[in-house]
Amino acid sequence: MTFEPSGNLEEPYEFSQSVVGGAVPKNYFPAVEKGIQESVKSGPLAAYPVFGIKANLYDGSYHPVDSSELAFKVAAAQAFKKGFLQASPVLLEPIASMTVTASDKYTGDIMGDLNKRRARVLGMNPVEGGKQEIIADIPYKELDGYTTVLRSITGGEGTYRYELARYEQAPEDVQKREIEARANKLVDIEE
pLDDT tens digits for the chain (191 residues)? Predict the structure, then answer.
């Protein structure tokens, strides 16, 4: 099998086959795809779902007695794990587009806190009533506990809203911590 990026982060995988000469009978193609389908649910890096993979079955071998659908499914899962780990995969993290609204006098403290949370401040807009609207992109993980912090900074006056904007590659240190923390979630594929 070959694996490459599909360029489509909306779908976990794309499966194709280019087997010639009957090296793998057509009736085993669904079993190979099933192996890939199950593998992308919990990737071999940190047991998170995998997205954006293009898998192509191009060759194999078949034995009339020993071959089975289960054997092809397991072989596909093993090929996926090996190919995926050799491809230097990265963890993606969800990024939220966030808007914080508060009085002008709290802007500096809010910006300082957002910087500590790995946020990228994109701009500020004045709002009626002496308030500022701060627009930023922030990793979802950094939103944990933000309500309490914003309430503390602004004396309960500040508000915020956010929505998913996209996924981005997580920084090295975040990836390392996450991989170590989720090591116990990895499942070994049957040998």
Answer: 999 988 888 899 999 999 887 788 888 999 999 999 999 999 888 889 998 899 999 988 888 878 889 999 999 999 999 998 888 888 999 999 999 999 999 999 999 999 999 999 999 999 998 999 999 999 999 999 999 999 999 999 999 999 999 989 999 999 999 988 888 887 665 44
Q: How far is CA 59 from CA 17, 63, 114, 146, in A?
A: 9, 14, 51, 52
Bridge-partner residues for 162, per DSSP? Answer: 98
Query: pTM of the full predicted structure?
Result: 0.76
Q: What angle do CA 8, 57, 15 make, to 5 degrees?
A: 30
The distance of Cα 96 from the centroid of its chain, to the nearest Å, equals: 14
> Of 35, 71, 66, whose CA–CA distance to 191 is shortest?
71
17 Cβ contact list (under 8 Å, min separation 6): 24, 29, 32, 56, 57, 58
Q: How far is CA 35 from CA 43, 59, 79, 120, 189, in A?
A: 12, 16, 9, 40, 10
Indicate the DSSP class of residue 28: G
